[in-house]
Design goal:
The protein is an alpha/beta fold. The protein contains 34 helices and 29 strands.
Length: 933
């Protein structure tokens, strides 16, 4: 045997010694190439790491030259790591072929040397009976350089690398070892192609984003769903962009041809009586659900596809959130329990989008995070090799579209979409890997698109070379037919008949649809009934919750400073009428009462455990052991779980994830909190496309709660405004609730009201929460308000003399505290200050009653701290004008319209704020025309 220390010295020798010790302890814990090396080369007495080559004892003559062994091992590693041949992976054969000669030259190996060495040096299953190393290398290339490219050497886990290597090289999941029904595959490909061709012939100008060039996507999905049933997965949740979506709806989700063809007729909607029509969405955005049953009519697996807007990849976190919810058991006290393989999310990406969209990376980051991992998400890249009209070299900086997944330790297999056998093998491998390791997997399905980005585009303007190849290239069905005819499985005539029958079936359905009739539109929703669920909780019960939340195990070491803070909370509920309940306590009592009622809660966000402003402390950390203790997990009265998770530094994907979670689990109170309210700007697509409009486009109802800290306190433009104007601009059709509660009691009742309406009137709830008000006396509440009160949309001035008041100032949020604490308050009894805590739906009845309560009123003023073009003014003023009528004028007081939401200077902020407050009480200045600063 060779002494390897004759070749390696110092740190290199030390590295090999450590690896060899690791090998001796567990041969599978080292890379396959090192394992092969150690099987044939044994180090002798090891030298010190600072020794030189001269100090190493010489070894007996090598049976095999050491350099040859190392070079062959390195060659085998390179084939496994970078052996994919781009030409073989590309159905169009447009890529440059990569041969073995370059690698042989790099390692100064010749074919003769390989012929002269044993095949076992290559390692792995393929080398077991290989006569020579040359034979072993050829076998490796047949696996790694054919129509499949295995990309797994970047994985940190040696176990996972070894598992993929062994199964790939042994062909464990190949159709040679586990044959498929070739005729059934032909039948499926025939239906896929016939559907596309029929639509193309009938509707040549309509967009459908044809699957052609990626037809094998449908059989891959069917294979994955079939495996899911075998692995006892109940929910398979699909998310995909447009490419191939109609075909997936028809052949995977089982949407009937009749329904799909009727939609293509696109009849005009009849208007409802008030002139409104249903909004709806285009065909290739629609969602669907299919229940697959066994022979006993029992549902084996539930397959659904989420509705998806044209913001292609933004459905990714929505689907993973749905999968997390589907796999979570929350109807028991304590922690929410997640079963890693109860659900399977499958995301189908575009190649250009996978590389170019940040939302993809944000979602990939969830794959191993507690509270977000799904137990394995399958990513399928529908690789057109061109994005819209942009070539690969202009749309990404990586060799493959999938390369960004490498940073997240996700294995990738590239596969030629024209090879059905290879596609099915890869699908099986992916399912088995996810079942074993509970981690994500990427299938890079490399194909092409038969037409342009949509069927109205002319791709030859921008990709003339590619489309010369496409025009000459046979469809995958034709390739498969040729293969079956060649091996005698079917005749060409029988295959042609199968296709003609499929076209004929579609034609019969089309002919039977008859003359297109207008679709009856759903009447526009009438004003929603205002439901007023009971939200008060008996004082005795609240005191019991309070005591439980402030009782910790004897072994728990509470931070001394925090202990003093929490100790001060102990007597907060002793007196019914003392305003001692601050925001954090009111919120904690709301959560406790909700889970005690049997409604699970989930709260996530970047710093939700402690709370960005250190007000919550829902998660306590042992000062000695660093272990977490969550009081709400140990509430004796709880009947449901409480889950709280600090999230990754993400808004876009994080909001999408919670939206999906809420969709899938409508019986749970799901909340997301922004670290600062303006951070929600990063999730604007989720708000526009899903939260605000999902119910009118796709009939999706959710009750996601968004907690957005908001208030102008001199902290600059980026830490002041949660942009209430944006949410209010989108408020219509009773699509959401928007509130700016001013006290702890209001927050308590608002959260409990949302929980009570989950099944009766599901709506998203946008809450503008405070920052400085978290501990402000104006925002504190009494136990009586929690135990006997309720949610109050409009809060009147409790100190006003209604007979004396001539000016009523309406406001919302933190500026109310500035008004209430102003020294001018007591000096101006003519001014009353009322708080509008519910901004949408606009509480018109309550505002009518408020105005009528002031018999001598002469003017109404809307006062806000936000600029005039922001905040609530533009939204609320038309409502106020209609309510007031001609009784008295409506004025505005606040900042001037501005491009930025707040001043960058604290002193400038204070000066302007003082002027705003002063003008509210300045009875010598008419505000009919509105003042701004």
């Amino acid at each position: 045997m060779t002494n390897i220390f004759q070749e390696f010295h110092g740190p290199n020798a030390g590295y090999l010694l450590d690896a060899y010790d690791q090998y001796l302890a567990d041969p599978e814990s080292v890379d396959p190439e090192l394992k092969t090396l150690f099987q044939h080369v044994t180090p002798t007495e090891p030298p010190a790491l600072n020794s030189t080559a001269a100090s190493v004892a010489s070894a007996p003559p090598a049976e095999i030259p050491y350099k040859t062994i190392v070079d062959i091992a390195n060659l085998a590693r390179e084939i496994r790591q970078r052996g994919y041949n781009p030409q073989n992976l590309d159905p169009l054969n447009m890529k440059e072929e990569r041969g073995i000669e370059e690698a042989l030259n790099r390692y100064e190996l010749t074919e003769a040397e390989l012929h002269g060495q044993p095949g076992r040096l290559v390692g792995g299953p393929l080398s077991h009976d290989a006569a020579t190393a040359y034979d072993g290398v050829l076998r490796l290339r047949s696996v790694y350089s054919g129509t499949k490219g295995f990309d797994y050497m970047h994985l940190d886990s040696a176990e996972e690398r070894y598992w993929i290597r062994e199964n790939a090289e042994a062909g464990t999941f190949s159709t040679a070892k586990d044959p498929i029904d070739k005729v059934k595959m032909l039948e499926r490909l025939t239906k896929v192609e016939a559907f596309e061709q029929f639509l193309h012939r009938l509707f040549p100008g309509k967009k459908r984003f044809s699957i052609e060039g990626l037809d094998m996507m449908v059989p891959i999905l069917e294979s994955v769903i079939s495996d899911a049933t075998n692995y006892n997965i109940f929910d398979v949740l699909l998310g995909m962009a447009h490419r191939g979506r109609l075909n997936v709806l028809a052949h995977v989700l089982g949407k009937s041809y009749e329904a799909m063809l009727a939609e293509f007729k696109d009849p005009i909607n009849e208007e409802s009586e008030d002139g409104a029509t249903t909004t709806g969405d285009v065909k290739y955005h629609a969602g669907a659900l299919r229940l697959l049953k066994d022979e006993n009519n029992t549902v084996d697996v539930r397959v659904s596809i989420a509705a998806n807007p044209s913001h292609l990849e933004h459905v990714n976190p929505v689907v993973t959130g749905m999968a997390r919810a589907a796999g979570t058991e929350a109807n028991q006290p304590g922690k929410a329990l997640f079963d890693q393989r109860k659900s399977l999310p499958v995301l189908i990406h575009g190649d250009a989008a996978f590389a170019g969209q940040g939302i993809v990376t944000e979602t990939l980051n969830f794959n191993a995070l507690k509270g977000y991992r799904t137990g394995g998400t399958l990513h399928i890249i529908a690789n057109n090799q061109v994005g819209f009209t942009t070539d690969n070299y202009a749309s990404r900086s990586t060799l493959f579209a999938s390369d960004s997944a490498k940073g997240y330790n996700i294995p990738i297999v590239h596969v030629n979409a024209d090879d059905p056998d290879a596609c099915i093998e890869v699908a099986r491998l992916a399912s088995a890997y996810m079942e074993k390791f509970k981690r994500d997997f990427v299938i890079d399905l490399i194909g092409y698109r038969r037409y342009g980005h949509n069927e109205g585009d002319e791709p030859r303007y921008t990709q003339p070379k590619m489309y010369r190849a496409v025009d000459k290239h046979p469809r995958v069905r034709e390739i498969w037919v040729d293969k079956l005819v060649a091996d005698g499985t079917i005749s060409k005539a029988a295959a042609d008949k199968m296709y003609n029958d499929a076209i004929g079936h579609l034609q019969t359905i089309w002919d039977g649809l008859g003359k297109s009739k207008p679709k009856k539109a759903k009447p526009k929703a009438k004003k929603a009934q205002v439901l007023r669920p009971k939200t008060s909780v008996p004082a005795k019960t609240l005191r019991a919750y309070h005591q439980a939340l402030l009782t910790f195990p004897d072994s728990f070491n509470l931070n001394t400073r925090l202990g003093r803070v929490l100790k001060r909370r102990l007597p907060a509920l002793d007196d019914m009428d003392s305003p001692t309940i601050d925001w954090g306590l009111g919120e904690a009592l709301a959560f406790a009462s909700i889970i005690a009622d049997g409604t699970p809660c989930r709260l996530t966000g970047e710093d939700v455990g402690r709370g960005t402003f250190s007000h919550r402390h829902a998660v306590l950390t042992d000062s000695e052991t660093n272990k977490a203790y969550i009081p709400l997990h140990n509430l004796p009265q709880a009947k449901a779980s409480f889950e709280i998770r600090n999230s990754a530094l993400s808004e876009n994907a994080a909001v999408g994830f919670e939206y999906g979670y809420s969709l899938q689990a409508p019986d749970r109170l799901v909340m997301w909190e922004a670290q600062f309210g303006d951070f929600v700007d990063g999730a604007q697509v989720m708000i526009d496309e899903f939260i605000s409009s999902g119910h009118v486009k796709w009939d999706q109802h959710n009750s996601l709660v968004m907690l957005l800290p908001h208030g102008h306190e001199g902290m600059g433009p980026d830490h002041s405004s949660a942009r209430p104007e944006r949410f209010l601009q989108m408020a219509a059709d009773d699509n959401m609730r928007i509130a700016n509660p001013g006290t702890a009691a209001q927050m308590f009742h608002l959260l409990r009201r949302q929980a009570a309406l989950l099944d009766k009137q599901p709506r998203p709830l946008i809450i503008f929460t405070p920052k400085s008000l978290l501990r402000h006396p104006v925002a504190t509440s009494t136990l009586r308000e929690l135990s006997q009160g309720s949610w109050t949309p409009v809060v009147d001035d409790a100190t006003a003399d209604h007979e004396k008041v001539t000016r009523l100032v309406l406001c919302t949020g933190k500026v109310n505290a500035d008004l209430q604490t102003s020294p001018l308050r007591k000096e101006t009894p003519e001014v009353a200050i009322a708080r509008v805590d519910q901004l949408y739906p606009v509480p018109t009845d309550e505002l009518y009653d408020l105005f009528n309560a002031y018999p001598n009123l002469k003017e109404v003023v809307w006062l806000q701290e936000e600029p005039k073009n922001m905040g609530a003014w533009s939204f609320i003023s038309p409502y106020l004008t209609r309510i007031i009528g001609s009784r008295y004028p409506l004025g505005y007081v606040g900042r001037n319209a501005a491009a930025s939401p707040a001043e960058g200077s604290t002193s400038s902020h204070k000066m302007t704020q003082e002027r705003i407050i002063k003008s509210a009480f300045d009875m010598s200045a008419a505000v009919t025309m509105g003042l701004s600063f």
